[in-house]
Amino acid sequence: MILTEEAARHRQEVPRPASLAGYAPPHRRRRRLWPWTLLVLFLAAAGAGAYWYGSVATAATGPRHVFATAQRGDIENNVAAVGLIEPRDYVDVGAQVSGQIEALHVALGDEVEKGALLAELDARVLKSQVAANQAQLRNLAAQLKERQAQHQLAREEHAREQGLMALNATSQSALDTAAANLRVAEAQIASTRAAIEQTQSNLDGDLANLGYTRIYAPMSGTVVTLDARLGQTLNANQTAPIILRIADLDTMTVKAQVSEADISSLRLGMAAHFTTLGEPDRRWSGTLRQILPTPEEVNGVILYNALFDVANTDRRLMTQMSAQVSFIVAAAQDVVTVPVSALRKTAGGGWEVQVADDLGNLAARKVEIGIRNRSQVEVAYGLAAGERVVVGVQSGDTQSGGMRLRGFF
Fold it and tell me: What is the topology classification, in CATH, of domain 79-88+247-331?
């Protein structure tokens, strides 16, 4: 093939790669870039359109009101607290004397009657002391009889000396000696009687201590704790050892811890109710009977203990249970209520709500409120059950892309 001079020169100017694989002339590479350029322009246009549409839609729609329907029902304003359930009446039974426990006649959970024998201590030492004092009393009784006889003799001798002195048949010294012997005999009798009284007192104490070795129930109830064991030695000289606790579980006391911010709202005699963790659907009721004057500090918070009692005949309440307590400050039944967020302050210091009609038109209406708590309020006048009120405004949140609810109150 014969090339012209111009074609040969053009072939020399265009370099060819060592390998022709993947090679394309420059004008073909430029043709392949135009689809990507169109795609970028299309995406940019779509984003701008979406932004414009969202702005127009938001401007057209604007904030939307959130409604709630006035309901008829019960409402109460209460003070909430956390409480602990304990028996109202209980006694810790201890030992008044030292000794080893020889017998335990009850077990944990047993029902006992007042006067029932609970435990017995080793009484051998006390029995020996009682026997010694009884023997001492017998000895002193014999001494008293002896000294009474001596006293009788001294009195007769003194009378005889007085008769002889009247006849000048004796000396004054003999009369004085007889009188002194009489006084000594009288003093010995008095000393012996005092010793008898002292020994009798010691005997009475030993007999009482001997009786304390048998421990009886001071009240009827249930054995709720048992701190001692058979064979354990109790030392009553330093501290009073506790053997067990008896409690009457038919009446329980709820000890509720109320913060100092709420304690001023409580009044003796006010109603209270509570639920337990095990039975959240059951409500127990009682009446506040006492507010302890000395508070407790828990993690820097001042808490006052408020006490009220509740019947427990079915024994569903047990010692140390937790209670969710509500003290009722005010309550009303079968009244119209709305959420607190529906209220708005008026210029005159009263209250109003925005009411919607069937067409969605809003109108402000003045109302009179009654009992109010953290979430609901009683409408005493100005609103009927079933009417819809505005409780907030729902608007777009451009920062988060979500919705934000704004209330009035």
Answer: Elongation Factor Tu (Ef-tu); domain 3 (2.40.30)
**pTM score, two decimals?**
0.64
Between CA 201 and CA 164 the distance in angstroms is: 45
Burial of residue 52 (number of CB atoms within 10 Å: 0-12, 13-18, 19+): exposed
The residue type found at 241 is: P
Q: For strand 71-94 and strand 322-339, is the pairing parallel, antiparallel, or unpaired?
A: antiparallel
152-182 residue pLDDT tens: 999 999 999 999 989 888 899 999 999 999 9
pLDDT number for residue 3: 46
Q: Tell me the pLDDT tens digit for each residue of 55-91.
A: 444 444 556 889 999 999 999 999 999 999 999 999 9
Give the number of C-alpha atoms closer than 13 A to the C-alpha of residue 196, restricted to the C-beta side.
15
- Domain 64-75+333-406 shares a fold with domain 79-88+247-331: no
HSE-CB of 346 using CA atoms within 13 angstroms: 12
Average pLDDT, the chain: 85
Domain ranges of the chain: 27-59, 64-75+333-406, 79-88+247-331, 123-212
Helix/strand number for the chain, H first, E second: 4, 20
How far is residue 292 from each of residues 193, 255, 268, 306, measured CA to CA in Å?
54, 10, 11, 6
Fold of domain 64-75+333-406: 2.40.420
